[in-house]
Amino acid sequence: MRDTVANITLPTVRRSVEVVRNQFETWRKERPCRGRIPEALWQAGVGLCWEHSICEVSRTLRLNYYGLKNRVTRARERSPAVGQGPDFRFVRLNLGGAIAASECLVEMEAPNGARMRMSFKGGARDFDPVEISRVFWRQGK
Fold first, then answer.
1. Does pLDDT of 61 surpass 70?
2. What mean pLDDT comes out for the span 100-121?
């Protein structure tokens, strides 16, 4: 297995939601009449559901919840099985400047045997450990 290191910051994730929302708004303003949402926009919305809940994405993008849920379900069925995709064993969070001293350790184990350990030193400002945990639990299904 290979180790993959990624620099992830929550503001970048939030910006990606805003970018897709702006794309939907631009499309809605520029279309001549009511019509089908282009497949590229649907795919962008589905992509956000890997990191956010379907409910949150459908509300933010003003999409039909069940239409989005069906597309997400089909996309997950086509994706590689757990353990066959990229091996994200370690994620590095870039927290930026100086942080007040504090420490927290969170360990989780999914029913499929996947384990995750998060250790935080300092005050967490720009990321949400709960959102990171949600991504882990989705991966373990």
1. yes
2. 77
Percent of the chain predicted with pLDDT > 90 = 18
Q: Please, are residues 45 and 64 in contact by the beta-carbon 8 Å criterion? A: no
Q: Where are the domains of the chain?
A: 9-78, 92-139
Pairing type for strands 103-109 and 115-121 reads antiparallel
> Which residues lie closer than 8 Å to 11 by C-beta, 6 or more apart?
126
Give CA–CA dist 40/44, Å, rounded. 6
Question: Is the pTM value of this prediction over 0.85?
Answer: no
Full DSSP string of the chain: ------EE-HHHHHHHHHHHHHHHHHHHHH-SSS-PPPHHHHHHHHHHTTTS-HHHHHHHHT--HHHHHHHHHHHHHHSPPTTTS------EE---S-----EEEEEEE-TTS-EEEEEEES---S--HHHHHHHHHHHT-
Pairing of strands 92-93, 103-109: unpaired
